[in-house]
Amino acid sequence: MTQDSNPMRSPLRLILLILILIGIPLTLGLYAAPRLVPEPQVGLIRLSQEITASSAYEITEQLNYARSDPAIKAVVLVINSPGGSAAYSEELYLAVLSARSEMPVIATIDLLAASGAYYMAAAADAIYAKPTSSVGSIGVISILPGDVFIQEEELTTGPYKAFGGTRDGYVRQMERAKHAFLEAIANGRGDRLTADLDYLSRAEIFTGVQALELGLVDDIISSDDAIEKAAKLAGLRNYQVVELYPLAFESDSGGSLVRYQPPPVDEQRLWVPPSNLAPGLYYRYIVPAER
Amino acid sequence: MRKPIIYLFVLVLLLGVPSGIRYLHFYGFEAAEREAPQEYQPANISQVPTPAASSFLDEPTVGKGFVLLDMGHRNNFELSDIAYLDGRLAARGFELINYQDGELAAALRQVSAFVVIAPMDPFSGEELQTVSDFVGRGGRLLLLGDPTRFNLLFNEEDVFDYSYTIETDEIPLNSLANEFDIIFKGDYLYNTFENEGNFRNIILPNTSISDHEMMAGLEKLVFYGAHSIQVGSSGTPLLTGDDNTWSSDTDRAGGLTLAASSADGRVLALGDLHFMMEPYYTVYDNGRFAAAIADFLTETADRQFVLADFPYFFQRDVNLIYTGSPELGPDAFDEIIALQEGFRSIGQTLNLAAEADEAHDTLYLGLYNQSEEVTKLLSSAGISLTIEPPLLTEAERAEVEDEADEPAADQTDTAESAEADEAVTPVQLIESAMGSVRMSGTTLILLDEQGDQRQLVLLAASNDGLENSIDRLLALLSVDAGYGLSDCLLQGRLALCPSDVPDEEVEAELDTGNAPEATEPEATPEPGTGDEDDADGAIPPEPSGDEVPGELQGSIAVGETIEGTIIEGEAHNWLFTGGPANIDVTVSSGEMDLVLQLYDPAGELMDTSDSGFSGESESLLGIEIPDDGEYLIQVRDFFEESGGYTLTVSAAETIGEATGAGVFIFADDDGEPLSSGYTSLEGWTELLGSTIPVTTWIASVDGPLEEDSLTGYDLVIWDSGDYRDESGFLNNDTVIMLDYLDTGGKLIIVGSSPTILGESELSTLVDIEVAGADSALLDGFEQGEIVELDQAYQAVTTDLFDPESDPQSTLLFVRGPDSSDSGSVMSVASFDESQPGQMTIVFLAPLSALPSGVQSRLVDNFMSWFGFGGG
Predict the structure, then answer these.
(1) How far is residue A62 from each of residues A40, A41, A223, B37, B527, measured CA to CA in Å?
(2) How crowded is the C-beta side of A124, counted as CA atoms within 13 Å?
(3) Which position among A69, B413, B581, B844 has the lowest Cβ density within 10 Å, counted as fewest Cβ atoms?
(4) What does residue B417 show for φ and ψ, rounded to 5 degrees?
(5) According to the model, what pLDDT value does residue A230 have?
(6) What is the architecture, at CATH level 2, of domain B65-297?
(7) How far from chain centre, in Å, is Cα B33?
(8) What is the per-residue burial (b if ≥16 Cβ within 10 Å, else e) of A67-94?
(9) With contact defined as beta carbons under 8 Å apart, do B437 and B392 qualify?
(10) Does B164 touch chain A (CB under 8 A)?
(11) Best of B17, B45, B158, B280 to mutate (most A CBs within 10 Å, chain A)
(12) Contact state of A184 with B23 under an 8 Å Cβ cutoff
């Protein structure tokens, strides 16, 4: 016969045991849960100026951040831009495509997504606009190089070393870039694009409603709804909307997240043509002359 | 064994529940499906090909001529833009010359075509008419627009205003094109479906090219940025875009014209300039098209010339032939040299020849009475010359006299016959489609064109008339010359011009020897020798003596107008006794060729007017009637035809020929005398004679000029004699003179130290040297001739007048070898192209310092130059 002398059997000890056996794992579970299942976030990336080396860097850094942060489940590109440098526009297109391979990327157009800005948007899963947003201007603009010449004192090893090429060759490069642009749009939009590429090559600026008819955008909705669409695309029920700019940049410098407010869109600056167009190809909309 | 498993399960459950609950809170069970993008492969975009260079070889027909390029309407292009076209023109022997300003009509005279590229200023109504006339006479017009040629216009008053407007070639081009039923649109064309490297580079395959003759051989063209052209019902589209070619204006496609020609094929309108620029002319058939345009511009088969196109209608070397083969003297040599120089200056050759030949064009000069060589040319133009009784040359008269001497018995008959001839009213007429015109006072100019050969006939009644007419031709030589035939009766290729020789007589033969001056005493001329009219202004033989032929009709007073009717052969005389007075007498008739004459109480002819043609009025203006004697005003018809007339006698306006108020002489004698203190007023009035109305103003008597003192005068002579006033431009008279000049006035500034030159340096002047070679202004002078003054003068020297650097100035005299500053300019003549009619002669010495013969010659020349036909 055994004697029930196990101290564990005392009620107090039993309670303690239960607390230890349940409470500790539960506490551990509660502690680990936010780390194991962080609150998903929809990151906002704002393009509120023309596309330059600087603005392109900022966008790609934010996209990289989104891809590296497991909490970021979707990205919404909020676009107010006339486009800009062709190469940087293409850089953004490719960066968005990469991000899109990992998470939903949605583009929402406020005022203007012209040329290179639309080029970037075309890589997104979906593009949304407002009824009177300005969308389009699909094409290339550049200043033709001057006539070629040779100098007595300046020697080059190739006939076009000093110039880069012929005027005629440059025209054809531009035309090829235009075709690549159109091809990128066709790729990004897929079957949703209903407009003929030749028609788009007229490089018109369309309103949001026209753009919807042409398949350049997917719907006319607000930016909040666009965020909702992004969350839905990411399968999120509850999520946090975060500005990615301070996460990507200001956290490094110890800035306060609370204080960050996205800078207001400078409408005037969006429409003002550049004082001079540096050599190179541009996917940019330039306001026509006053007549 | 089971318990640990359960414990472990519970443990895991307890650990995982919070995360699971959290996950369920944040995530749905299923994410929305996303479409994967297609693979992006920009490298697969193929290179836009460059068309192969054309192998076109231009094989033009070489000719000779000019094409005028408009540069006078702020044309927005560079000459390098049309270098290829210029080369194609040069290959055809044609030179491209620029038109920047001046009279367009004059510039168009010598060219086969006019090219207008992207003008920014519209054409005026006058220019439009000129170009229209040019095209109407077979000239070609090329209008080139280009949508890339525009100007941005900024608000210059506000440097911070960056807005601008765009100035295009549309309206300026259409100011000309619309005349030919062609309208340039302000658009640009594009084709996004099939283009040559860019939407604006329109490919034009053979289906876009019309079968017009000019487009033969063209298979494919490309226009690099083009306007569309709207062609009216009379025009012909030459290039038409396909259904994928759109207009930026209408944003509609199809049926857009890029090149067109007018109904007569003489106007070509192109919407693009680039296709003929380097390197685009090498694409497809663009180079061939540029060559076809060069052919179009150099086509002269339709080109019809008019007389005003002299001498540019001559396409070959020109033979100069004096009709009647006269013995040529120094005057003729002057003419020939002047003409040769003029021809040479425009790249043509003029050679003196005895006979015409088919290898050359011909310029005939001569008198009506010696025009046998051109009778055929005249009659083919429907012109006949009638000189009855015949005028005999000296040789012919000698022959007649010889014959008359032989049969003595016939002497009486011959004398009677001569008397009878004298009694017959001479008939000396030019009969043409314009009717009958008197030879006297009239120069005939006829252009004849037979195939490639062009012949110009210039006939005058007298040597003086011929000289004046040659001056008229010389004035036409300059490319910038205004029409020198504006005062002529022009009909087709015939012009009847005033000879500018008062009371000109029809001469029997051309005497180009050292013609005696009008002022020189002359041996009694023998009728028919041709010498009798060498004195300018000689009164023609008219009935004189106490008995004035004609029927007295009554009297007429100042302010009266009387109507009368002349019966065939009648002459009406009207008595005027209202003197002393200064009167104007005018008679007009709808149909008669009137002759108006005034006889003094002694029956002597005082003055006559017979300068107009049939239907024109005749006037005697500014006639001074010195007393209250019986003066007769006679009215008759030159051909003794009948008709009604209206005769008016009125108080003379200040003075005035039909063209204005005559000559104003300002004796500027209120300065400091440099020697004895005098002006040449008296000399001027004497030399100008009675044929030109003269008003005088003496500064020391009449005071300074008033603002309107010079208004309306044809010529102002500002004679400061040997007075000097150093106030220069501050002087009131100078201001008024300059104002007068600004209105297109004609001015002679003469004197040792003209007021306008202010404080200019003085030096001794004792002689002057003829330094110029102007055939009109220095007629009768020889280059290098020295003229001594009557004394030594202190006269200004100035370097203001430098004919070498001023193309509008003509050098006349320099200071003579014995004067200080020998060789410096002391007399020039100049005109201002920007002020039509403005002509000035400066002579830095008193007129009276010259020998009287020189004064007379000089004043004659000056007055002729100013258009007064001699002093």
Answers:
(1) 16, 14, 19, 21, 117
(2) 28
(3) B413
(4) -65, -40
(5) 95
(6) 3-Layer(aba) Sandwich (3.40)
(7) 86
(8) bebebbbbbbbbbbbbbbbbbbbbbbbb
(9) no
(10) yes
(11) B45
(12) no
Cα R_g (chain A), whole angstroms: 27
Residue B19: closest CA among chain A residues belongs to which residue? Answer: A33
**Amino acid, res. B191:** N
| Position B544 confidence tier, pLDDT thresholds 50, 70, 90 | very low
Considering B154-168, B374-388, B833-847, the range whose residues carry the highest mean pLDDT is B374-388
Give the pTM: 0.63
What's the confidence (pLDDT) of residue B541?
A: 39
Q: Give the residue, B54 or A64, on which the prediction is more confident.
A: A64
CATH level 2 (architecture), domain B663-865: 3-Layer(aba) Sandwich (3.40)
For A29, nearest residue in chain B (alpha carbons): B15
Asked if B28 and A236 come within 8 Å (Cβ–Cβ), the reply is yes
Domain boundaries, chain B: 65-297, 307-404+421-498, 551-651, 663-865
**Superfamily of the domain at B307-404+421-498:** Chitobiase/beta-hexosaminidase domain 2-like (3.30.379.10)
Residue of A nearest to B43 (CA): A180
For residue B627, pLDDT beyond 90 = no
Q: What is the pLDDT at residue B705?
A: 87
**Contact with chain B for residue A94, Cβ under 8 A:** yes
B15 to chain A, any CB pair closer than 8 A? The answer is: yes
The answer for residues whose C-beta is within 8 angstroms of residue B450's C-beta and 6 or more apart is none
Q: pLDDT tens digits for B148-202?
A: 999 888 877 777 777 778 899 999 999 999 999 999 999 999 999 899 999 999 9
Task: Please report, as a single letter, which amino acid is at residue B105.
Answer: A
What is residue A256's predicted lDDT score, i.e. its pLDDT? 53
Structure tokens at A257: 């997240």
Share of chain B above pLDDT 70, in %: 90
Answer whether B65-297 and B551-651 agree in fold: no
Average pLDDT, chain A: 89
Residue B522 scores a pLDDT above 80:
no
**CA-based nearest distance A253→chain B, Å:** 30
- Weakest mean pLDDT among A6-20, B49-63, B484-498, B596-610: A6-20
Residue B536 is predicted with a pLDDT of 38
Dig out the tokens for A189 from the structure.
């939009």
pLDDT at residue A265 is higher than 50: yes
Interface check A197 vs B, CB under 8 A: no
* Better-scored residue on pLDDT, B277 or B477: B277
A193 contact B CB<8A? no
Mean pLDDT within B742-755: 88
Contact B794, B765 (CB under 8 A): yes
ipTM above 0.90, yes or no: no
The separation between the first and the last C-alpha atoms of chain B, rounded to the nearest angstrom, is 151
Q: CA distances (Å), B33 to each of A151, A225, A235, B6, in order?
A: 62, 18, 9, 39
Q: How far apart are CA A75 and CA A63, in angstroms?
A: 8
CB-side exposure of B359: number of CA atoms within 13 Å?
A: 3
Q: Which residues of A touch B34 (CB under 8 A)?
A: 104, 125, 233
B165 contacts A290? CB cut-off 8 A: yes
Q: Is B489 exposed, middle or buried (0-12, 13-18, 19+ CB in 10 A)?
A: middle
Least confident of A203-217, B528-542, B655-669: B528-542
DSSP-assigned letter for residue B146: -
Q: According to the CATH classification, is domain B551-651 in 1.10.10.10?
A: no
CB contact under 8 A, B192 and A123: no
- List the domains of chain A with CATH numbers: 38-284 (3.90.226.10)
- Chain A residues whose CB is inside 8 A of the B19 CB are 29, 32-33, 36-37
